[in-house]
Amino acid sequence: MNQRFKVLYYLKKGKRCQEKSLPIYVRATIDGKRIEWSVQRICEPEFKWNQTTAKAWNMALEVVTKEDLQEFRIQLINDIRQLMQPEEVKLFKPWLKNAEGRKLLNISDNTIQRLRIAGKPRSSKVGGIHFYRYEDIKKMLNSDAA
Fold first, then answer.
1. Which of 22, 47, 116, 133 is disulfide-compatible with 56, CB 3.0–4.6 A?
2. Virtual CA dihedral for 88, 3, 145, 81, nearest 10 degrees?
3. Interatomic CA distance for residues 130 and 134, integer angstroms
4. Distance between CA 82 and CA 51 in Å, rounded?
């Protein structure tokens, strides 16, 4: 499986751009999914920031310890794992719309219609929209996985 992976270091300019120092951020992109975090370092804006080398000219030397690198490595690995996990629909509601049920089951419009006609997920039609009980969809997912 080929995946594209990019890392970009940049200065994050907030709404208050007049600040004397700006935080340095990292953006990791894996197959178009982005995650950003601060590296807990700052840079004075009068120094010339180079994004390709991720360095600032005339910046005072800052000592980075092994512990700093280890902490950064652990944070980076956790963030990459989080990016690579499949997206889950986080639901707190008992009823799902037709599109939400299809997305959870990973099936087409026709397939969910056939299942609805067969009565497998119980549905209710309100205002032209079919709603399914979350518990029924969850049972169908568990029975397919077994």
1. 47
2. -50
3. 13
4. 25
Residue 120 and residue 135: Cα distance in Å, rounded? 12
CA distance 116 to 114: 5
For residue 120, give every residue at least 6 positions away whose Cβ sits within 8 Å of its Cβ, in sequence order, or none: 136, 140
Q: Which strand (E) or helix (H) includes residue 99?
A: helix 98-105
SS3 84: helix
Sorted by sequence, the CB contacts under 8 Å of residue 125 that are 6+ apart come out as 131
Q: pLDDT tens track of the chain, all 146 residues? A: 567 778 877 777 776 555 577 788 888 888 888 888 888 777 766 666 665 666 555 555 566 677 877 888 888 888 888 877 766 655 567 888 888 888 888 889 888 888 888 888 888 888 888 888 888 888 888 876 54
